[in-house]
Amino acid sequence: MWGTSAVVHHTVSLSEDTVNRSSQAPVIFFAIGIIGLGILALVFGDFVEVGQTVAAWVPGRTGLAYASGIVMVLGGAGLLSRRTTALSVRILLPFLIVGFLVQAPTLAMPPFVEVNWESIGEVATMVGGMWVLFATRSGLGAGSRYAFATGDKGLRIARIIFGLALLPIGISHFAYLENTVSLVPAWLPFRTGWAYLTGAGHFAAGLGVLFSVVPRLAAAMEAGMLGIFTLVVWVPRLVAAPTSRGVWTEIVVSWTVTAAAWLVAASFATKDPAPNRP
Fold this sequence. Notes:
- The protein has helices spanning 2-44, 61-79, 82-103, 114-137, 151-175, 177-183, 191-210, 215-240, 245-266.
- It has 278 residues and is mainly α.
- The longest helix has 43 residues, at 2-44.
């Protein structure tokens, strides 16, 4: 009797360890992306993606950019350790939300400029990815005032944000077709077709996550597509121009958004979210 119980307990422990290791992989990739964004902010002394629309006339803008870099580097590093994950997500989620809100006014000045929607969509995907971590790893239980943002409800919020964020990213492929085609490697045939296909892919993935139509597959395919973009589009450009600030920004943003999509996909891995603990 005791032997059977011990075997069962050992089997369950092994199963939990396997799940924890598999769920940690996207967290590590996401953390590296956040750290990368922070390093770029520190190297260039300017905002990178998050809060990039802070006007030049704002007092202490450069100092704020350096501060944001420090927050991202330290916060991202904190995600790599289970002891500090809870604290990091409690800091980084509000930080990314502020970055989103700082850019939000660009949507109305003037309205319907797709590039502004695409840019804020990229920030929103990061918010969605971080919210997944907040919902499952912030350590905030039912008694917290932020309980609405954790557990199943928190995951639902994260998925809605992520799904909505993909829509303007997909539309940008059509709105800026010529630019999108120019990013498709010259060795690929039917470059215009690839531009249309990837734009439709972003849009379909967003709708799939939003309306729970094979949502895990939708998010996973989005992560896979973005990962291919990073390798096929931006890595060769980085090799060709290793000192280009624009290329470094694009590859780090692409990496981080890929990891956010992976986090969202992983959040559908089990029926119930992981225990919300530090």
